[in-house]
Amino acid sequence: MTNSPMRHDEARDLLAALALDSLDATNEARVRAHVATCGECAAELKDLRAAGAAMAFATQPRHDIERAAAVKGRLMARVQASKDAALAPPAMQVARSGGSFANRAALAAGILILASSSLSVMLWRDRATLRDALASLNERESSAKLSTDSLRAALVDRDKLIAGLTGRDMAMVRLTSNETQEAWALMFWNRATNGWTFVGHNLPVPKAGRTYQLWLVTANAKISAGTFAPGSNGEALVRATYQLGRDALKAVAVTDEPSGGVAQPTGAFVVIGAIQ
Amino acid sequence: MNPAAATRTYPEEKANDLALIKRVAGGDESAFSALFDRWQPVVRAVADRILADADEADDVVEETFWQAWRGAANYDASRASVQTWLLTIARTRSLDRLRARRRRREESADVTDEDGSSSISTLAADPNADSSSGAEHEEQSRLVRAALSALPAEQRTTLELAYFAGLSQSEIAEKMNEPLGTVKTRTRMALQKLRGSLADLRDDAS
Questions:
Q1: Domains in chain B: ranges and CATH
Q2: What is the ipTM of this complex?
Q3: For the purposes of burial, counting CB atoms within 10 Å of the CB of A160, is it exposed (0-12), middle (13-18) or buried (19 or more)?
């Protein structure tokens, strides 16, 4: 295995496998490095990716009306909730710190507690608002059924989030950035339910065609926990469910990757943190 | 051929998608709703095929469109069509779940065959598919299935193991008991043929 630059003809032969995300990590990095400097291969890769994506149509499209309606209801509730959140005043302000390592460590610990508790307070307040709105709609009944469904979905969603942050067997990882001091994040791991809740702050918006990908790092593997893009305010919330041994987690990281995500991390770290 | 589909052109469909995604980027919920209605059946089909679990497919559909809502402002049309963008998200999300499931089974020493190798049979008409699917996507499905059917069986299997089972070239070689070089060559030839066949079939259909 080598990390030497890949020749044009060698890279061209592997573009189809790259288009299907079917290359091993070393070859993928080498082909990507070549594509980044070769317009011909970049254009060919784009074409082959489109052909590869057409494989989706090898299975006939499915119209499951009930499931589609349920998913759409949840999505529209999330959209509404995100719009409401964007209009709401900031829930917390995080102080910027200087000074000694000890001071910074103390401040960091304080931030963790503050962030966790502030987040919980904010969520409970949010939950109470949703519950009140739901009760009010229930009283009026009938005509508001669609709105009720949306609010119920939002309430269930928020309940799940609260459960994910307040379990009895929780671990928390703080992620920071070497590049941007303002960017930071917390990963909450509910070991009892295998639930993961990532809360990011002050994250820069990814460049066009790029996305952020969240990774659970163990001694032997980097496990994708999904891709995401922060809102225009730099905030991000990602939830995932993944079973991991109690002592398996070594670190949590977010990397900058091509849209759609990758099988193994290839881009720069946005934020990263080791479990304490 | 479906007459309704024959009157549409692919550039028109791409323009419609692009217009929708621009409105979604501006926070237009009705455009997001339309984008969901338009692509949800295809996204669900991919997730269903990869995961063979309707509940997990639900989650993938939700995650895919939520990512589309959050990422629409960063969508770059010069890099990929809306179709490629959405289906890549759906496939990546589905394969993430499939690989996590495999890891859990490997950890519990209960490895079962879950590599999509039986998927060739799905090239035949799917009895569970709804015949009232959107005409243009039904037509596209017909074209892709025809193009895949025209490939030699070993090339088709290679493509399906890569796309639907998310296997690496090395894993496919091991699965098919073939040299790695052979698998790489097959992958290249198969995808290039698929691209060519789709272009020809689309020309015939338009």
A1: 1-110 (1.10.1740.10), 131-206 (1.10.10.10)
A2: 0.78
A3: middle
Distance from CA of A126 to the nearest CA of B (A): 21
List Cα–Cα distances, A19 to A44, A269, B51, B65, B150, in angstroms.
10, 23, 21, 22, 21
CATH no. of A170-274:
2.60.40
Alpha helical stretches, state H, B108-152: 135-149
Token pair for B160: 């399906």
Question: Which of A57, A63, A243 should be substituted to probe chain B, the one whose Cβ sees the most B Cβ atoms within 10 Å?
Answer: A57
Angstrom distances, CA of residue A199 to CA of A119, A236, B96, B124, B200: 10, 6, 20, 45, 48
Q: Can you state the angle between helices B29-51 and B82-107, rounded to 10 degrees?
A: 40
Measuring CA to CA, which residue among B46, B47, B71 is closest to residue B57?
A: B47
CB pairs under 8 A between A and B: 234
Return the amino acid letter for A97.
Answer: S
d(CA B164, CA B144): 15
Q: Would you kindly state where each structural domain of chain A is located, as residue ranges?
A: 8-57, 66-165, 170-274
B160 touches A: beta carbon within 8 Å:
yes
Instruction: Report the alpha-carbon distance of residue A63 to residue A255 in Å, rounded.
Output: 35
A157: how many CB neighbours lie within 10 A of its CB?
15
Q: Are B147 and B198 in contact (CB under 8 A)?
A: yes
**In degrees rounded to 5, what are phi and psi of residue A3?**
-110, 15
B104–A243 C-beta distance less than 8 A: yes
Question: Which tokens hold the place of B151?
Answer: 């490939």
pLDDT tens per residue, range A128-150: 566 666 555 555 554 445 555 56
CA dist A16 and B169 (Å) reads 11
Contacts with B22 from chain A: Cβ below 8 Å:
none
**Sheet with A184-190, edge to edge strand ranges:** A222-228, A210-218, A249-258, A269-274, A170-176, A184-190, A195-201, A236-241
Put simply, the chain B residues between 108 and 137 with a CB less than 8 A from any chain A CB are 122-123, 125-126, 128-130, 132-134, 137
Residue range B69-102, pLDDT digits in tens: 999 999 998 888 899 999 999 999 999 999 888 8
Tokens of A112: 């963790």
Among A200-214, B1-15, B42-56, the minimum mean pLDDT is found in B1-15
- Comparing CB atoms, the residue among B40, B67, B76 nearest residue A68 is B40
